[in-house]
Amino acid sequence: MKQRTNLLTIFIPLFILLSVVTIPYIWIILTSFKTRPDIMSTTPVWLFQPSWGNYVEIFHKDFGLYLTNSIIIGFSSTIICVTIGTLAAYCFSRYKVFAGDHLFFYILATRLGPPAAYGVPMYLILDKLGLTNTHIAIILAHATFNLAIIVWMMKSFFDDVPKEVEEAAYLDGCNPYRTFYRISLPLAFPGLVAASIFALIFSWNELFFSLILTSGETRTLPVMIPSLAQHTGTQWGQVAAASIIQSIPVLIFIFFMQRWLVRGLTFGAVKG
Amino acid sequence: MSIQSGSAEAVAPIDARREMGMLERFYAWICSERGFIAFCILPIVSFLAVVTVAPSIVAMIDSLRELSLIIIGKRGEFVGLDHYRNLLGDDQKFFTAIAQTGIFVIVVVPIQFVLGLAIALWLEKITYGRRILLTLIMIPTMTAPVVVGMIWRFLLMPSIGVITSYLNQFGFFVETTIFSEGFSAFVALMVIDTWEWTPFIVLILLAGLTGMPQSPMEAAALDGASAWRIIWHVKIPLLRPLIVVALLLRTIEATKVFDIVYVLTGGGPGNATEMISTFAFRTNFISWNLGYGAAICLVLVFMSLIVAAAFYKLVTIQEKKNAHSGGDQ
Question: CB–CB of A109 and B305 under 8 A?
């Protein structure tokens, strides 16, 4: 009897939930291994002879270049915003900063506002400077866009560092720099890693800024994937393969970084 | 609290200060608390000035100019506040975009919330394999939105899409396609957004449920409260801070919806699925009407500052409440 209720209340809903969530993704994984006739078939094909063809073809289409772009842009923008953002977050957490509340709020506004509101002005100025379609443009854009997540998340991590430890360091004669570098930063380091990975993921997944600030040689994966869909006919197998390669690092991240997911997705507002 | 630290006095004895040169005095200032604050804050201030304030000034100037590619003779001419007058006065497309974004948010956020809450309350019971389970559930939220859009575009393709082919068997969308009619396209976007973002709410609420003290629930159960009453009168009130954050973030993110619309409908058919972001994108980068587009963006900046202020107020009020009651959510 007990087992039957388990089956009804736990396993069947669980099965339905997991199907709804994962089947679209699984279907794309299957599609990436299909050949064109199987993909274009009007009746869904669930069993087929797998092939690596789609993965091979996208690398013939400069997929490697866009992958490299995404990696360069992701890491550079993350390094910039983590450096700037961590220092500011520490200050916000420990000291009274002149107009600090306004600044803290302004940083959040850059992230909560629609990307068009900040992206288009950025495009206008970069266009005048002749910097559109360079890596610099998109790196700066992504660093700005991720600054809010770094500052807010790192502030919540620094708030968790017990102040007594720092006071002890001051008594021992450390100046603020040494205290920050030797005491607070190492204690908040796991948080720093988590925040950086979040920034990296958001840059990796970001579409709007990449769409307006890159083209041709500097395009990133999120810009390249929809551009494979053309009026003359979409190579869905290649779209699927590119999507899978794009999303696998993110999925690995969810598995290993689960402890920080809640805090990262709520800007540190919820310390799950 | 503020930390007492080595200020200028601590670095050099008072009588020695008179003999300090410029360089030493600068060094003493750098080592002081104020110097450290400046060292931390100046980079972010100058960075934001370069990447957000300067562009906004350029956009402000551009929004007063005619920069459309269509109106040839007048390119670059100053037109004063004409763009703002047109935009706020009689641009039907702008107001349609705002209204449609509003409808989208009002429908999608409550549905995601109710679904998310139900799933979270039910998943709370499952303790075995939680990690792998959450990983699977978070796939839609953490995958790039543009990839989500492409996945669904493929699933909903006329004739070859797997969902359309099953829908066809039941007699739906045989004559028309999903994205050729405004209503069905709009509903499809809502379904996709729900698929994508419900896990986000599940994640936040589940974190709240598992971190919750168990004693109120046990006390209520001892008093003979039914499971429903415990959920309604004990768990949901305890979850309230998280519910506020989840709803606020979802509302803000939903008003920014761009990626899935760009990939699936591009705002069409006609402008039936036009949202604020796609409208701004189309005006600037499809019609290349940059002056007018700049005006739109500044109106959006203004609107988003109001939204962000509301978020900030609510979150800080809540933190104060938590600090007051000693709770730590």
Answer: yes
Nearest C-alpha neighbor of B329 from the set B242, B247, B248, B237: B242
Say whether residue B62 is in contact with chain A using an 8 A CB cutoff: yes
Look at residues B164, B263, B188, B192 and name the one whose alpha carbon lies nearest to residue A41. Answer: B164
Q: Which of B174, B233, B284, B26 is nearest to A209 (CA)?
A: B284
Grade residue B201 by pLDDT with cuts at 50, 70 and 90: very high
For tokens 């360069």, what's the residue? A72
Q: Which domains does chain A have, with CATH numbers?
A: 65-265 (1.10.3720.10)
Contact A170, B3 (CB under 8 A): yes
Identify which of A256, A239, A221 has the alpha carbon closest to the alpha carbon of residue A68.
A221
List Cα–Cα distances, A214 to A58, A118, B195, B262, in angstroms. 20, 16, 29, 16
Q: Flag if B165 and A13 touch (Cβ within 8 Å).
A: no
Kindly provide the ipTM of the predicted complex, given to two decimals. Answer: 0.89
Element (H, E) at A103: helix A100-112
Residues of B in contact with A112 (CB under 8 A): 252, 304, 307-308, 311
B273: tokens are: 């699925």
Is A22–B136 a contact, with Cβ atoms under 8 angstroms apart? yes
* CA R_g for chain B: 27
Flag if A225 and B150 touch (Cβ within 8 Å): yes
Taking only the tens place, the pLDDT of each residue in A160-201 is: 888 888 888 888 877 888 888 888 899 999 889 999 999 999
Q: Is the CB of residue A29 less than 8 Å away from at least one CB of chain B?
A: no
Q: Give the whole-angstrom CA distance, residue A67 versus residue A224.
A: 10
Contact A111, B46 (CB under 8 A): no
What are the tokens at A11? 């396993």
Q: How far is residue A252's CA from residue A268's CA, in Å, rounded to a whole number?
A: 22
Please check whether residue B122 touches A, CB under 8 A: yes
Cβ of B36 within 8 Å of Cβ of A177? The answer is yes
